[in-house]
Sequence to fold (481 residues):
Amino acid sequence: MALETYQAKRDFKITSEPRGRKGRATGNSFVIQKHDATRLHYDFRLEMDGVLKSWAVTKGPSLNPEDKRLAVHVEDHPLTYGDFEGIIPKGQYGGGTVIVWDRGIWTPTGDPHKAYKKGHMEFELDGEKLKGHWHLVRMHGKPGEKRENWLLIKGEDEEARHEGEADILEERPESAKTGRQLEEVAENPDATWHSRPEGGKAVAAKAKTPARKAKSPAAKEQDWPKGAKKAAMPDFIEPALAKLKPTPPAGERWIHEIKFDGYRLQVKIEDGRVTMLTRGGLDWTEKFGRNIVDAFASLPTETAVIDGELVVERDTGASDFSALQHDLSEGRYDRFVFYAFDLLYLDGYSLLDVGLLERKHMLEKLIPENSGKLRYSAHFNENGGLVLNHACRLSLEGVVSKQRDSHYVSGRKGEWIKSKCSQRQEFVIGGYVPSTAMKNAIGSLAMGYYEDGALNMSAASAPAIRLRRRSCFTNACRRSS
Fold:
């Protein structure tokens, strides 16, 4: 379909949609726009031959491979349409509210032109919300049927979800461009265009900026960012987890943090009382001594929930999990350091829907620079591969990459990716001790390694030897971080 069809359906003196023109046929962007018109639907668009090939997905995309979502092929749209977010006036074609629900890059499997002509396109999506393998399949039309119906289907891969798992449409309803909900855009007069204002030309109607709400006394004059919501102190927030990838993602949308080798903890501060919860929600406050607890209690806040990792560092500055376990077993607390990398709640406000960089900025202001026990986990804007290379040279665990404007999403469903430095060593197993906690399980191993032709069985002198719960050989072991 040519852009003439798109342009013929619209009066650009009235609508703020871009007139657009055909672009260079070299890009591979995709965009999904949530469109509240006569009925709510999602417009799925793939950049191809200088335009956005477009389908109206009536129920929206599903991550369940069992769901075959109807996708009605509509007219091509200009590339500039991929950035459109606002209100199409009533009476105009497609009148209603539009937000950019997702956007990113698509990579076709094989020749996309042949696949499009054949009626079965396979491709990978790398968006802010949708990822992995997908199919677009054209259905056999009925005689006399004018519209061209396709099916949008998620491929079976690690990004797929199945019956009973969270619906991505309900989980992430916000705009990938601005973080706004449909209702927020609909209520914003700045997004509405009028065809006959004073002077006769079509211009955007600019509303007066609404007065800022009174700042919360509990927030100590905190200037709350977009997405912060007044809420009660949560009992526990399931932590966000990273997906393992061999290399960090590329692009300016990503920031990169050092991956720590310790215990992942969620710290709650409530009127001076500090609670340190494990990844599973267990209260481990008493395990780490008073120094860390007192450091959190002294922070300038009444209530907060902080996400981070407790570590013991070697002389090189790298975190050492085996040293952490040793100190815990010996009741030694002086070497514990907590690296804070996210702020989930502060002084009566939930920050889960605030962009990542905004959360980190607030966290950085909360953590004192000269604290020996609490440290802010800084991030890098450089190329992810370069950051990982430097981390590996310093014998660090790896890096965690996060989308800079992403919300905090519990579980392994968000935009966090971890890439590890792989280090290998061959060991000789000299014996084992059965587990005292579970039948048919290994409690510990006696291992050695060859050095200069001699077998060294001294674990104390062995470089980087450790038996960690996250890497043992029985399903009785559980990950600790």
Remarks:
- The chain has three domains: 3-204, 229-420, 428-471.
- The chain is about 15% helix and 30% strand.
- The longest strand covers residues 96-108.
